[in-house]
Amino acid sequence: MERLNSSTPHLIRWLSHTGGRLHVVVIESEDVPADRGQMVSLQKSMRSVGLDVILHAANKHDTFPQRYFSLINILYRNRHPDTHWIGLIDDDTFFPSMSALISKLSGFDPQQQYYIGTLSEDWWAVSNYGYMAFGGGGIFLSIPLANILDANTGTCKDHIGTSAGDIAVMDCVYAHTTTKLTHIPELHQVDIFGDLSGLYESGRLPLSLHHWKGGSYFGPDGNGYPLEKMHLVSEICGDCFLQRWQFGDDTILSNGFSIAAYPRGHLTGESPVDLEKIEETWHGNTLFRHSLGPTRPRLALEDEKLQHTLVDSMLTASGVRQLYKRNGVDGDIDTVLELFWTLDAS
Predict the structure, then answer these.
(1) Which of 14, 26, 196, 308 could form a disulfide with 324 if both were Cys (CB 3.0 to 4.6 A apart)?
(2) Which residues contact 172 (CB under 8 A, 6 or more apart)?
């Protein structure tokens, strides 16, 4: 319940007032069921900000993968005549552009059996868990496929041989159909440890992001990234989140994430960096080339690259203000850059 409550500001960014309905299976903890009164209160609060949400109390006897699989039953049985896809996500899945996601899915025939998602960026996870849609990046099932999985709930849900929900879905798909994964690499599981600047500054616009809440997957301090603040600029410029702009000979804005200067001529010198390649800012570079390649070596911060990262943004009467901060080193003061986005009155 607390994780869902903390996710609400981020859900507002991409789901509010879109017409998309969110079904959530909730518990308080593995040992404590969700309080009914708190469920009613949270559902009412989420609906008041434009989220079409229905909370479902988890079956107290279900394990985590069984709760995960039960979402297929709930979504399939609550479908509408014009429902083409059902999607399974985590509470820390983020879709920067619903229009881009819908456009991508529109390229597939929803009358056919489709199992759509993305692999982990980490080849170790793929080789150990399987060629499957990893749940944090989003799993999308066509209605004909969901029908088969729902009909086989007795074997797929009640006899699960894994502790992971997305593996349970894969096992059911591969056990009862000839459907295989349709891989969309723009969906991101984000199984990447450490500094994710390379991903966010790549200019490759993601359809989904995951693991933004922090922990071992994120950043030097483990505090994650404030996606609801990073994404706010889309109120002004639409699908401009993480788009790149170059200023002068040495500065690049990755919109909503950073303003990076390259003082040693890495943009225009004799041997400029290839900006089409992702900078290897994370830990353990060799296991990510199948998903993030081509890549390039990391530049030294405070020498080859001076990076201001977004710390806050706010919606005002006339636009969006963004604040990017670079921490001072060796006794220098911190510096803050402000960008102010406004709509063209013409």
Answers:
(1) 308
(2) 69, 149, 152, 155, 156
pLDDT at 255: 97
Average pLDDT over residues 268-289: 83
Are residues 259 and 308 in contact, defined by beta-carbon separation less than 8 angstroms? Answer: yes
What's 4's DSSP letter?
Answer: H
Segment 292-339, tens digit of pLDDT: 989 999 999 888 899 999 999 999 988 999 999 998 888 788 899 999
Between helices 165-176 and 143-151, what is the axis angle to 10°?
A: 90
Instruction: Give start and end residues of each alpha helix (H) in 48-97.
Output: 64-77
Residues 6+ apart with CB under 8 A from 345: none
> What CA–CA distance (Å, rounded) separates 146 from 82?
15
Listed residue (264, 261, 256, 268) closest to 310, CA to CA: 256
Q: Is the pLDDT score of 219 beyond 60? A: no
171: CB partners within 8 A, 6+ apart: 156, 160, 161, 162
Q: How far apart are CA 212 and CA 206, in angstroms?
A: 14
- Pair type for strands 251-254 and 258-261: antiparallel
d(CA 27, CA 99): 31
Q: For residue 260, is pLDDT > 90?
A: yes
Tokens 């989220």 — which residue? 51
Q: How far apart are CA 316 and CA 298, in angstroms?
A: 36
Q: How far apart are CA 253 and CA 299, in angstroms?
A: 17
What the block records as the tokens of 329 is 């080193």
Greater pLDDT, 152 or 193? 152
Q: How high is the pLDDT of residue 328?
A: 83
CB 114 within 8 A of CB 86: no
Residue 85: enclosing H or E segment and its boundaries?
strand 85-88
How many Cα atoms occupy the beta-carbon half-sphere of 217 within 13 Å?
Answer: 18
